[in-house]
Amino acid sequence: MSPKAMLAVIVIGLGLLVASQGLYVVNETERAIKLQFGEVVDADIAPGLHWKSPLVQTVKRFDARILTLDTNPSRFLTAGKKYVIVDSFAKWRIKNVRAFYKATSGDRFQASNLLANLVNKGLRDEIAARSLHEVVSGERDELMTKLTAALNLETQEDLGIEVLDVRVKAVDLPEDLSMSVYNRMSAEREREAREHRSQGREVAEGTEAEADRKKTVIEAEAYRDAERTKGEGDAEAARIYAKAYNKDPEFYAFTRSLKAYEETFKPNDVIMLKPDSDFFRYMKDAQGK
């Protein structure tokens, strides 16, 4: 190979080496920072292909996506001097690359530890200002919204990160307090159950008394109507009897005597009367004489 060809190969090789050391790519999911001898010279590098001075400048890349910080359950004290165990998580992302690098040296785990301390501090302050009921259910959403806003201001200034959301996954009570709360809740539910049963018995007794009253009224009205109908029937029967008697008194007396005989003379009965009693007149004479 001629000296000129050798020189050309060397120049091309050096060019490729310089290009490989100087060209770099920043993806859309990344944030990058350019350093020169340890000092930040460019902290706002857009995604795409870029150039840096080989051997003089270095580029550090960071994840620009939304990241999740899952904190360990921690114990906090409420305003009512009750301990609660809170398990929470936070959503965050890098907002200011320069501030993030200065605060954490670009170490994501260090950033997570710093953010976890701030989250726990914020939770401690917010929970300490609220009662147990407010922490568990009453004001949890308000607590999370207020904590997120306060953390976001602090972390953007100190850590260069933006806190998008802080949420509580679970609020538990210590075992000894849980048993006390369980017993109190059980007693409260038992009291409510007794109250409901008492109200049910009261309603049942009222319903039963009303039913008895209606029954008495219905029976009285039925008895009244029956007696009225019976009286009307007796009156009609008496009217018919009187009419029949007036039409033929002798026949009426005869039929009544026959009916009396039928009802009086039963098998094995013994009747003691005078033979000349008026009761036997139709047995002696068909004319009743």
UniProtKB/TrEMBL annotation:
GO biological process terms on file: proteolysis
Keyword Protease in record: yes
Region (Disordered): 188-212
Key words, A-Z: Hydrolase, Membrane, Protease, Transmembrane, Transmembrane helix
Domain Band: start-end pairs: 21-185
Transmembrane regions listed in the UniProt entry: none
Subcellular location: Membrane
Keyword Transmembrane recorded: yes
One Pfam family of this chain: Band_7
Topology within the bilayer: Single-pass membrane protein
Entry's Gene Ontology molecular function annotations: peptidase activity
Main location (coarse class): membrane
Role description: HflC and HflK could regulate a protease.
Entry similarity comment: Belongs to the band 7/mec-2 family. HflC subfamily.
Protein name: Protein HflC
